[in-house]
Design a protein that fits this description.
The structure holds 2 protein chains of 2 kinds. Chain A is mainly alpha-helical. Chain A is built from 12 helices and no strands. Chain B contains 12 helices and 14 strands. Classes of the chains: A mainly alpha, B alpha/beta.
Chain lengths: 268, 318
């Protein structure tokens, strides 16, 4: 347990000194700039666009960090051979995988928290500078706390993407790992379409294949409530629990798979 | 109890994409290293030294055979607490300083951050890293990284330390310092297992050596034993030897060299027994008689040539 925590802390420190800071700065600048520009260009839609853009940016920047850092966690250690010294210490390979995972998840969640603060900061500024008459046209208040639910599910999604990236990086090349992780992300977002594909196509075989893929892939579309919260629609607690619970099971499965593969791997 | 023991340790790799065939990196290695010994693991490049060390660290898994460290199977976490390892050409995290790296590793052995800093400071002093300890490792030269690598291998005050080419990348001063460090470790009772292809290091430090060639153990034993096993004969120095007598015994000699003032150095082959030759020297006076021992280099070359005629392609089973 202690070794895992130390490895996780090492990943966090390494990430902070690496490129994550640039991602945050980029996100903040994008958000701020768009809020001021769009407030002037749109009438009544400014707050919606800012919310859409803010949530999408948080998701995309997080995805970028989760995939590229997630894959680098294992492959960089193996390619640069820094893992040789690390695994000669009282650390098992499973502790190494879990520690690396937890370190990046910690980084992503802190990163996401900073984005939430910046996001609400911009919305607060907009709320304070907008006349009450103009606010009446908004579908939901600027500082709607329900948006936190969308951020929470983005966090779960990033945890799953990180686990996927680590899983693929334990047995394939970095390039292939990026491609496979990205493919899982894309397919995962079309979960509902795959499930209901028989209503779109005439084929007999294709629906079976699509359903098979649906059951194997994580259902990431259930985690996407961005549109709902931007329009002020309610997201039930049961949906939150079910969507995040099934993803947690998927994450556990991926990490067990990653540990099993990595524990048998020769580190040449 | 042996500090290190391997039994029939074998490692094959698959080479070739379309038709994978096994490449024999290590073949049936059986050896043991006693506690407190400085053991040299010698061999040319590609002999299987690093493969052996990786097997002992369980970075790779054996095709067959097994290995034990301090009486427990390799990979046991309890054993890892008692050993240290310097990989060949070590590499560490660019964004950490030398001090942070050592504290990071020290904490894995249960040290508090404060205790880790104390150990890091002492070890970095010992390996000659001064003010640079606060620099990020990306700014370190190869030799400095090697020194940090040695320091991290000692962070837990190990009972057994494995050093893979410890002198690599070091300047002459650094090499001397590492030699002194290994001797200090020996004096503390630490077992040192180091691989090298620099024979002078082994001669200066080791009580026993093993020579590996083409993945096979070619020779193992105490340096004295190994170098006398292949004795080249004897060197007999005499004075007052007449030309007639020299001509008569010359067929039984390897070489006769005049040293001046009537003294000769007579080199005897192993087949000539000195006690049988001396009565035939016609009253010449014996100045000295010494065995002509092979150097470690002679032994190394002889063993590697004996087993090493085959090239890489021949090690790949057809």
């Amino acid at each position: 347990m202690r070794s895992m925590a130390i490895i996780a802390g090492g990943v966090f420190r390494d990430s902070i000194r690496d490129r994550i800071g640039y991602g945050l700065v980029f996100f903040s600048i994008l958000l701020m700039a768009s809020s001021f520009l769009l407030a002037q260009l749109t009438a009544g839609q400014d707050v919606k666009i800012i919310k859409d853009l803010g949530l999408a940016s948080a998701s995309m920047i997080g995805l970028f960090i989760a995939i590229f850092f997630g894959i680098g966690l294992v492959t960089k250690e193996v390619e640069r051979r820094s893992i040789y010294s690390l695994l000669s210490k009282p650390v098992t390979r499973s502790q190494f995988v879990i520690g690396k995972y937890l370190g990046l998840v910690m980084t992503l969640l802190i990163n996401l928290s900073v984005m939430v603060v910046a996001f609400y900061g911009v919305l607060l500024y907009l709320d304070m500078t907008t006349l009450d008459g103009a606010k009446a046209a908004w579908e939901a208040p600027a500082l709607d706390p329900r948006m936190l639910k969308a951020f929470a599910l983005i966090g779960v999604e990033l945890m799953l993407v990180t686990a996927t990236a680590i899983f693929f990086s334990t047995f394939s090349s970095p390039f292939l790992s990026v491609a496979l992780t990205f493919a899982v992300f894309i397919i995962g977002h079309f979960g509902e379409d795959l499930k209901n594909i028989n209503s779109i196509v005439q084929s007999v075989v294709l629906p079976y294949i699509a359903k098979g893929v649906y059951y194997v892939m994580p259902n990431l579309s259930a985690l996407d409530v961005k549109s709902a919260v931007v329009h002020g629609q309610a997201v039930s607690a049961s949906h939150m629990l079910l969507a995040s619970g099934s993803c947690m099971l998927y994450i556990a499965t991926l990490l067990v798979g990653a540990i099993l593969i990595f524990s048998r791997r020769d580190l040449k | 109890m042996d500090a290190i023991k391997t039994t029939g340790l074998t490692k094959h790799y698959q080479v070739g994409f379309w038709r994978p065939r096994p490449y024999i990196a290590l073949d049936d290695l059986s050896l043991s290293v006693a506690t407190g010994e400085v053991f040299g693991f010698l061999g040319p490049n590609g002999a299987g030294k690093t493969t052996t060390l990786k097997l002992l660290m369980q970075l790779i898994y054996p095709t067959s055979g097994h290995a034990e460290i301090l009486g427990s199977p390799v990979g046991d976490v309890a054993v890892k607490r008692r050993i240290g390892y310097l990989p060949e050409n070590p590499y560490f995290y660019d964004n950490l300083t030398a001090e942070e790296l050592l504290v990071y590793f020290a904490r894995m052995f249960g040290c508090s951050a404060r205790e880790g800093r104390q150990r890091a400071s002492r070890l970095l002093d010992e390996v000659g890293i001064g003010a640079e300890r606060r620099f990020q490792l990306r700014k370190f030269s190869k030799g400095m990284v090697q020194r940090v690598g040695i320091a991290q291998a000692l962070i837990n005050e190990p009972e057994v330390i494995f050093l893979d080419e410890p002198m690599s990348g070091l300047d002459p001063l650094g090499r001397r310092e590492v030699r002194e460090l290994i001797l200090r470790l020996r004096d503390r009772g630490c077992t040192v297992f180091f691989s090298s292809h620099v024979l002078s290091d082994a001669e200066a430090l080791c009580s026993r050596v093993a020579i590996l060639a083409n993945g096979r153990l070619a020779a193992i034993g105490a340096l004295d034993e190994l170098t006398s096993v292949g004795s080249r004969g004897w060197e007999l120095v005499v004075s007052g030897l007449s030309a007639d007598v020299l001509a008569r015994v010359n067929p039984r000699l390897t070489r006769a060299t005049s040293l001046g003032d009537g003294r000769f150095s007579l080199e005897l082959p192993p087949s000539t027994i000195p006690e049988q030759l001396i009565p035939d020297l016609g009253g010449a006076r014996i100045v000295s008689l010494n065995p002509l021992r092979g150097t470690l280099e002679d032994l190394f070359v002889e063993q590697v040539r004996a087993t090493g005629g085959e090239r890489f392609s021949e090690k790949v089973a057809s």
